[in-house]
Amino acid sequence: MREDRRQLRRNETVREILDTALEVMAEEGVAGLSMAETARRMGMRPPSLYQYFPSKTAIYDALFERGMRETVGVLEPYRAELSRDPRGALLAGQQATVAWAMAHPVLAQLLYWRPVPGFEPTPRAFEPAVRQLELLRAALRAAVHAGQLSPAGADEDGVALYTSLTAGVISQQLANEPSAPVQEGRFTRLTPTAVDMFFHFYAPEESESDDSDLRGRRTPAAD
Amino acid sequence: MREDRRQLRRNETVREILDTALEVMAEEGVAGLSMAETARRMGMRPPSLYQYFPSKTAIYDALFERGMRETVGVLEPYRAELSRDPRGALLAGQQATVAWAMAHPVLAQLLYWRPVPGFEPTPRAFEPAVRQLELLRAALRAAVHAGQLSPAGADEDGVALYTSLTAGVISQQLANEPSAPVQEGRFTRLTPTAVDMFFHFYAPEESESDDSDLRGRRTPAAD
DNA sequence: GTCTATAGCTGGATAGAC
DNA sequence: GTCTATCCAGCTATAGAC
Fold first, then answer.
1. What is the pLDDT of residues B164-179, one digit of tens each?
2. A183 in reach of chain B (CB within 8 A)
3. For residue range A147-161, what is the model confidence (pLDDT) as tens digits?
4. Protein residue with the closest CA to the C1' atom of nucleotide C14
5. Exposed site from A20, A68, A117, B75, fewest CB < 10 Å?
6. Rounded to whole angstroms, how far apart are CA atoms B74 and B143?
7. Residue B221: predicted pLDDT
8. Which CATH number fits domain A63-205: 1.10.1270.20, 1.10.357.10, 1.10.287.110, 1.10.10.10?
9. Residues of chain A with pLDDT under 70
């Protein structure tokens, strides 16, 4: 299974192609990626790219997978804290995710929106997304277990609502104020507030309080 | 200022061009709009389009403006209810907005995301967005006045958080499950829950409760 | 107002030499 | 593994006849 020199060099080139493609997308838009332009910037002729990627879609797919792996990787450092303080870990993870998205707006758009006409990620590229969702659900369950969250906060709706909060803050910031620093962005700076709002809504019932039945209910009757 | 027959016919053609462009975008992606294809579908030759729009960007801009006007228009029916029950009006408006976005995914993407490389809306096209934001702020202020919301819910952060909720639900649904009915979508069906969560977080202080200082605060110290 | 014709360009992708 | 050469297609946009 050893990677010999040839293979190493090849992987380096693959990485360089993806990096260059990201540069092109940053300037021309996510949907504006061009194989020819990518090749030119690398000092290559366009046909040579096809030795590494069989099509433009393949490049998008590789970038999608890279982005997904990176967002999952961003959460890794906070897994350890999950057993001590799940809520703290969730907030830290949320802030790290939002910060990553602002630092990598092109990848974030590829992941959170669907800006490229013909492109659908392959199952292989999508797999990290599944793991990320499982990780989030596990974290929310840990918060329930620690008495920081009502059980409804970790069920299907709770998870969906939490991901909507993430997507909402990131989408608004990217669409309206893409180059603001995370701490100052009109939307990204509200990340802790959003997490608070979530935990407040799904606050666990306190036995000594008598209006607790109003909180953390699964789906309030509000039609 | 009368619109004679010639002008009327022209405006009809303009509308037809925009409708056809939307069809093309629905099939080819928002960034996949083609002047030539639009013309062909109308039984025209491509150059004739330039009698109505000087460039592709002009079509995007007209569509952006149309979309903005429509989303504002969707809220119109609920203005009357603002004085009676602001919270009810906000919820109804939110549901109408989400339903509109799902019924017009192409326009919604153009408004909520930035999927088209070179395109930035002109101030003229953007103007309805400003009105929409003012309307939202007025609605939130009405809720404060009616004792349904703490003052912090209508300040700058509250407005930004509310729009993030809207954008989050719509983004997640469009990206992950675009063709689900609003009532059944994993994310869109949580619209009432999201609004509840917002109002719960910014609940007005109740004088007889003694833990009220924990709710509705502007920006909780949670770093 | 609509057309033909066309300029001018860029793109994705392949064949086959080196 | 990289190249030259090339195919073929598509596009935006303009000039100028009808």
1. 999 999 999 999 999 9
2. no
3. 999 999 999 999 999
4. A47
5. A117
6. 20
7. 43
8. 1.10.357.10
9. 1-3, 207-223
What CATH code is assigned to B61-214? Answer: 1.10.357.10
Instruction: Identify the architecture of domain A1-54 in CATH.
Output: Orthogonal Bundle (1.10)
Instruction: In whole angstroms, give the CA distance from residue B98 to residue B91.
Output: 11
Same fold, A1-54 and A63-205: no
Lookup: nucleotide whose C1' is closest to B45 CA: C3
* DSSP assignment string, A68-133: HHHHHHHHGGGTGGGGT-HHHHHHHHHHHHHHHHHH-HHHHHHHHS--STT----HHHHHHHHHHH
Residues ≥6 apart with Cβ < 8 Å to A134: none
User: What is the pLDDT confidence band of residue B144, given thresholds at 50, 70 and 90?
Assistant: very high
Nearest-CA neighbor of B104 among B4, B203, B8, B25? B25
- Give the pair of three-digit tokens for residue A197: 């709002």
Phi/psi for B85 (5° steps) reads -140, 85
Report CA(B34)–C1'(D10) in Å, whole number: 10
- CA B52 to chain A, closest CA, distance in angstroms equals 26
pLDDT score of B195 more than 50: yes
Where exactly are the structural domains of chain A? 1-54, 63-205
For residue A172, give the chain B residue with the closest CA: B164
pLDDT recorded at residue A33: 97
Burial class from Cβ neighbours inside 10 Å (0-12, 13-18, 19+) for residue B60 reads buried
Tokens read off for B75: 């809220």
